[in-house]
Amino acid sequence: MADQKCPDCSGELVKVKVFGRGWENPISKLAIDAEFGFYTEDNSERNDFLGMFKANGTVDSYLCSDCGRIFFYGTRLK
Ligand SMILES: [Zn+2]
Structure pTM? Predict the structure, then answer.
């Protein structure tokens, strides 16, 4: 993937981590971060007991160092 270029501007693609940040405590500024690393089907529902989705694959993220566009590439779990 590192040898691929951005289709918009031909910039270099660099691997990055994408994550979500939960509620931030206004005093301590602490929060919970969750790395964005999996995908599942669009109609997938959370497990009733654990509240988790069944992961069908992993996601790798790349950022164009010139225009800032982010690309996601999925790899199906076996
Ligand atoms: Zn670009």
Answer: 0.80
- Report the relative pairing of strands 57-64 and 70-76 from DSSP bridges: antiparallel
H-only helix segments in 1-78: none
18-41 pLDDT tens trace: 999 999 999 999 999 999 999 999
What's the gap in Å between 65 CA and the centre of ligand 1? Answer: 7
Could you say which DSSP state residue 35 is in? E
The closest alpha carbon to 77, from 39, 49, 32, belongs to 39
Q: Rounded to the nearest whole angstrom, what is the distance from the C-alpha of residue 33 to the centroid of ligand 1?
A: 27
**Residue with token string 């497990």:** 47
